[in-house]
TrEMBL record, chain A:
Name of the protein in question: GvpL/GvpF family gas vesicle protein
Family: Belongs to the gas vesicle GvpF/GvpL family.
InterPro entries registered for this protein in UniProt: GvpL/GvpF
A Pfam family annotated for this UniProt entry: GvpL_GvpF
KW Cell membrane (keyword) present: no
Originating species: Streptomyces pyxinae
UniProt keyword list: Gas vesicle
Subcellular location per the Swiss-Prot or TrEMBL entry: Gas vesicle
Automatic annotation (TrEMBL), chain B:
Family statement: Belongs to the gas vesicle GvpA family.
Protein name as it appears in the record: Gas vesicle protein A
Compartment(s) of residence: Gas vesicle shell
Subunit-level organization: The gas vesicle shell is 2 nm thick and consists of a single layer of this protein. It forms helical ribs nearly perpendicular to the long axis of the vesicle.
Swiss-Prot/TrEMBL keywords: Gas vesicle
Protein purpose: Gas vesicles are hollow, gas filled proteinaceous nanostructures found in some microorganisms. During planktonic growth they allow positioning of the organism at a favorable depth for light or nutrient acquisition. GvpA forms the protein shell.
Keyword Nuclease appears in the UniProt entry: no
Keyword Zinc: no
Region (Disordered): 74-145
Superkingdom in the source lineage: Bacteria
Pfam family, one: Gas_vesicle
PROSITE patterns: GAS_VESICLE_A_1 (PS00234), GAS_VESICLE_A_2 (PS00669)
Gene that encodes the chain: gvpA
Amino acid sequence: MSVYVYGITRSSHPGIPEKLGGVGDPPREVRAVASGKLVALVSEAPEDLKPKRRDLLAHQTVLSEAGAAGAVLPMRFGGVSPDEAAVVSVLSEREDHYLERLEALDEKVEYNIKASHDEEAVLHQVLADDPELRALSEANRNAGGGTYEQKLALGERIVAAVKQREARDAVVVQEALQDKSVGVSPGPESSGWLANISFLVDRGAAHTFVDAVERIKELHPHLVLQVNGPLPPYSFVE
Amino acid sequence: MSVVPAQQGGGGSGGTSGLYDVLELVLDRGIVIDAFVRVSLVGIEILKIDVRVVVASVDTYLRFAEACNRLDLEAGPRKNPGLPDLVGEMTESGARGKSKGALSGAAQTISDAFNSARGDGDEEKTESSRSRGRSTSSRRKEEQE
């Protein structure tokens, strides 16, 4: 029977969340499959598994529960093994590698930071920084908004200025936070934020990290920052 | 929108509060094992689209030009103190917030398009309704479903 795999941890892990509800409806029970010094957190794989909210949440919850008690290597959502024997053979084949990663991630958590601009505030800034843009904007306004061509001309320059600032602010965010972390991983590019960055943070230093985020907000009020964490170290397992 | 870590038990059950915001990590990061089959991710391309990115296009140019016209340089909450000589000429536009309206409107259009293109049950619908204006409480509610 095929087996859904949530993550990998040490067999000495003190809080393996067995019996917790996993993916599927009704939720399939989480159990441990052991091989040597490693354990995989698995459950039966429902046949029609799709990336639905309920199942994504179950995946995340199992990893969060297990991660609260000790280092866990999270699997990407949706990994299904044909059977338990295949899980065991993967664990034994890569035992050294996984043990090394578990040691590296001990007492570490991931924080994901997403930054975007407050549009109005950033427009204020780009106009304040560039007298030419300001004059152009003022001329359009005095002309009742301006012609289509004038609007395009102004808009093109504003967009260029905003994009420049996006790139600059992405650096600002990363530089302000990388000192407070032990690892940095750019998030998947698809999501369209001016910065989407994951930081690996010592669990004990999490407050220092969050304080640094607050300082960025104070210093750069045109930035909207979203902090998500502590998370299982999805971005730092490889 | 921020998640304060003190409210989360070291990655414990509090991890649910931010699922929506870290979906791309759950789907794009983490260990992948070649010997395993991966569940099809058809139906969640919504992750690739987000109105927050500023794209160079005629529509964006026009939108930003309009937003500038409406910008009230005097009353802005983060007014730049270096602009005193402009203030007298730019106090007439009382349309603060309209640019935000335009943004969430765009998000709505995209999510409508996805809903009608997919329409495969409630769960997909909630996943595609990503927009800037969503309240935390409604998001929580959806996640508990």
